[in-house]
Automatic annotation (TrEMBL):
Superkingdom, natural source: Bacteria
Name of the featured protein: Abc superfamily atp binding cassette transporter, abc protein
Pfam family name, one: ABC_tran
Organism: Liquorilactobacillus oeni DSM 19972
Gene Ontology MF, one: ATP binding
Record's keyword terms, sorted: ATP-binding, Nucleotide-binding
Matches recorded under SUPFAM superfamilies: P-loop containing nucleoside triphosphate hydrolases
Annotated stretches, region: Disordered: 230-249
Gene3D superfamilies per record: P-loop containing nucleotide triphosphate hydrolases (3.40.50.300)
């Protein structure tokens, strides 16, 4: 049984930034199938890089295994896949072919250039070579980004059947839930290691959060009572002090002796009052420690303007062609106001091409009919958004967006305010994706067209979007492969095959 032991790990990129990890100690077993989860920016990829010794840190990381990392760095994508894989790892051909078969790939794929493979095929090939290496421990970072629903299920089954342990980072809840037996959660103020899958962790987390919420309510009531008692005692003591210097006529006979008694009593009461205040302050400090680890999902805003048209899209025997080759068989579908239509199909089936055709941006040819209102305001989340550039202020002006709406949604999605002055082209991939999504949410639209909106978003962002869509009930056309998201928000679907 091989262990990975972490002792008093502390790490931050620089003095100005918040420390990502502080005095973290834990032990992991290399036989575990461990899911590493947490909000974007919590340090999941950084944690994997720390395990590999890529950053200096305080503390100790003790291990008896070497690590291999997915996705591997590719230098020349135009090479034949076989030769490219040889540069990444030493493997026996039969073991690699075995892994390819388990991933439902024909080994002939090795003799195609890597850049000719689909995103899903590239992912599977890189996973195959990762597990063809029997000696090193796999660290798998976001394997589902380019996988369709079928491919995700295939990869999930592949990882389920592995006897070998690994650490995997993924924001696909169903995927993680089906493959892991332990969870390491990078929470708001602590790191939690638990046995079981993601659903068990989530149940335990909800119980902990509920307990803290209940304790907080009790403590607020207690503090309110203490404040009231302290205030009443202080007012009484202050009033008695004033009585000492009142007129003899009000105090009556023997006033000289009574003032001493009143003063002593007032002093005792004031002392008790101060003791209560100190107790109250101590309880308040304890209160501030509560709820420190509860993740709050702030509500997003969507600028949906329902169309007066009942029917927004209708396809009649629609078929697309590229270089005279059909992308899919003729399809028929309708999208009515308030519906959320999912385009389903394997990678390469033509889902994104159909979206581009509807937006008059398809370079191929088409047969059949598409019926839609002559004027239809839409908002689009693209898969490729590398042309987003400039500051957020410039970006909002270019797309005629309300900057306040854009910035508020972006902040609620987890982008810190200090990143708002960073040019978009210099942001991380996760931040760029949130800019593209916030742009769509801020745009006034009758129809929202989202092409794989969840890539690079964490579980909490996904829950924010689900809650928003359930509340607003917008009309949507969606391409997405996350099973949980699909079940929660889609009202109908059409399959491209």
């Amino acid at each position: 049984m091989t262990k990975i032991e972490i002792k008093n790990l502390t790490f931050g990129f620089n003095i100005r930034e918040q420390t990502l990890f502080e005095n973290i100690s834990l032990t992991m077993d290399t036989n575990w199938k461990l899911g590493l989860i947490g909000r974007n920016g919590r340090g999941k990829t950084t944690f994997l890089k720390l395990l590999q010794g890529e950053y200096p840190y305080d503390g100790k990381i003790e291990r008896q295994v070497a690590f291999t990392y997915f996705p591997q760095k590719i230098n020349d994508k135009q090479q034949l896949t076989y030769y490219l894989l040889q540069e990444l790892s030493a493997f026996e051909d039969w073991k690699l072919k075995k892994e390819l078969n388990l991933l439902h790939l024909n080994p002939d794929i090795l003799w195609r250039s890597f850049d000719s493979l689909s995103g899903g095929e590239q992912t599977k090939v890189l996973l195959a070579v990762l597990f063809a290496d029997e000696f090193n421990f796999p660290l798998i970072d976001e394997p589902t980004n380019h996988l369709d629903l079928l491919a995700r299920k295939q990869v999930a089954h592949y990882l389920q059947e592995k006897r070998k342990g690994f650490i995997v980072v993924s924001h696909d809840r169903s995927f993680v839930n089906s493959i892991v037996d332990h969870v390491l959660a990078l929470e708001k103020k602590q790191v939690v290691l638990s046995q079981g899958n993601y659903a068990i962790y989530e149940e335990q987390k909800n119980m902990r959060d509920s307990f803290e919420e209940e304790e907080n309510v009790k403590l607020k009531k207690e503090i309110g009572r203490l404040k009231k008692t302290s205030s009443e005692k202080a007012q009484w003591a202050h009033g008695r002090e004033k009585d000492k210097y009142g007129s003899p006529s009000k105090l009556g006979s023997g006033a000289v002796y009574d003032t001493g008694f009143i003063g002593a009593r007032a002093a005792r009461t004031m002392k008790r009052s101060k003791t209560l205040v100190k107790r109250m302050e101590k309880e308040t400090a304890a209160k501030e420690k509560l709820l420190k680890n509860i993740e709050k999902n702030e509500s997003l805003k969507m600028n949906f303007k329902p169309s007066h048209h009942e029917l927004l899209l209708k396809a009649e025997n629609l078929q697309l062609f590229f270089e005279n080759k059909p992308l899919f068989a003729p399809v028929n579908f309708e999208l009515r106001r308030g519906e959320r239509l999912l385009l389903k199909g394997r990678n390469g089936a033509g889902k994104s091409s159909l979206v581009k055709y509807l937006l008059n941006d398809f370079k191929g040819t088409a047969k059949g009919n598409i019926i839609k209102p002559q004027v239809l305001k839409y908002s689009y989340v693209r898969q490729d958004y590398e042309d987003n550039k400039g500051t957020l202020q410039q970006f909002a002006k270019r797309y005629q967006l309300d900057y306040t709406d854009l910035a508020n949604n972006l902040h609620k999605l987890g982008v810190e305010r200090d990143a708002f002055e960073t040019p978009i082209e210099k942001m991380s991939m996760g931040q760029k994706k949130r800019v593209e999504l916030a742009k769509s949410l801020a745009a006034s639209a009758e129809l929202f067209i989202w092409d794989e909106p969840l890539n690079y978003l964490d579980v909490f962002n996904q829950e924010q979007l689900e809650e928003l869509i359930k509340t607003v009930k917008p009309t949507m056309l969606i391409v997405e492969h996350d099973d949980a998201f699909i079940k929660n928000i889609v009202t109908k679907s059409v399959i491209l095959c």
